Amino acid sequence: MIKDKIKELAAKYSDEFINIRHHLHAHPELSFNEFETSKYIQQSLSGWGIGYEVKATTGVVGMIKGKNSDNLIALRADMDALPIAEMNEIEYRSKNTGVMHACGHDVHTTCLLGAAKILNELRAEWSGNVKLIFQPGEEKNPGGASIMIKEGVLEPKPDAIFALHVNPSLPVGRLSFRSGMVMASADEIYITIKGKGGHAAAPYLTADTILTASQLVVNLQQIVSRMNDPFNPSVLSITSIQGGNATNVIPSEVKLIGTFRAMNEKWRFKAHGLIKKICRNTAEMSGAEIDIQIDVGYPFVMNDEQLTITAKRKAVEFAGTENVEETEMRMGAEDFAFYSHHVPACFFRLGVGNKEKNITSGVHTSTFNIDEAAIENGMGIMAWLAASASTT
Q1: Rounded distance, CA 178 to CA 168, Å?
Q2: Residue 272: count of CB within 10 angstroms of its CB
Q3: I need a labelling partner for 128 at 20 to 30 A (CA). Which of 44, 120, 169, 272 fits?
Q4: Distance of alpha carbon 127 from alpha carbon 132, whole angstroms
């Protein structure tokens, strides 16, 4: 049975791909600068006889042809790192100062490479075709996924697309799935308040930008608490206020930045209008001027219900009922969302944590790491989902 062969090969190649992960982890590259990572992926695919093309400068798209079917399944991995200085004392610690694979993209890339080798070796035993998408720039707007799509990565349109993401709070050996809304859209808010500055002892002679900013932070919270359906997940956070540098001076300018998250595209853009309206009205009441810029980021991740139900059942067949869980909804963002609004998609979680080994640090931290037994599980489940989806 092909499932058993996939598991055997995943176990056989486990050490090889742990070493590959070490190499990738030691040589992280920031978003849209993944040049050496891209070369490494291209060399690996070439060595296994898998054809590929380059998109979005550093993106790599491979293709493996099975037998008998026109089905097309896509598997995606992101490959960029973060501007974080690694604190782990490990042999494969980042060699690039101030850059680290702190979100597990080295793991994602390794698992997809492993799945590619397995699927290619077994290509006479499964039906259909599998597209391998190694994508740049997940961590930075406009998101590598959006650029890859513009350059035709979804042409011809796949029947389904899968991606995994590490989860350090999920024990190694486990997998988790969720249908429907999985992760939120993410938009960046930039606000500049301009007023008449002056002496802090005579605020009546100013248009107080600090007071305006304070009122604005409170007023904006009404959007989520009073203008939104409470059953519609949404978050608005102002994360920085910059203005003034003296105890006796009211500044003429204050800058605020923040983020808006949602799980509904119609509400998302309605909220943008409300943000701008409240900003203008609050500034007008204070006699100040205001500039508002909202940079539209990633949409929300939508997992296709039937595809995800089927994938979860296949995961149970692969890993056992006790190792497959339900993923919680998160207000974090992922540019896999772009694919999910074009193609039936399934974005799932790979357990990489191990409390007994003190592997518990969260993603985007300087001490993030994984239990590398997850590599075998990750490349195996990706190969199995692709092979079984293609065949059925």
Answers
A1: 17
A2: 18
A3: 44
A4: 16
Closest CA to 336 of 146, 104, 80, 170: 146
Question: Pairing state of beta strands 180-183 and 301-303?
Answer: antiparallel
Instruction: Report residue 104: phi and psi, to 5°.
Output: 80, 15
Query: Cα dist. 327→99, 156, 178, 370 in Å?
Result: 29, 30, 5, 19
Tell me the whole-structure pTM to 2 decimals. 0.95
pLDDT tens-digit series, residues 158-205: 999 999 999 999 999 999 999 999 999 999 999 999 999 999 999 999
Which strand (E) or helix (H) includes residue 112? helix 105-121
Intra-chain end-to-end CA distance of the chain, in Å: 14
Planar angle of CA 60, 66, 70, nearest 5 degrees:
90
Q: What is the C-alpha separation between 202 and 274, in angstroms, rounded?
A: 33
- Residue 202, classed as helix, strand or coil, is coil
Q: Is 144:335 a contact under the CB 8 Å cutoff?
A: yes
Q: Which helix (H) or strand (E) holds 271?
A: helix 265-286
Mention every residue, 6+ apart, whose C-beta is less than 8 A from residue 248.
Answer: 199, 200, 201
Torsion on CA atoms 35, 40, 43, 49, rounded to nearest 10: -120
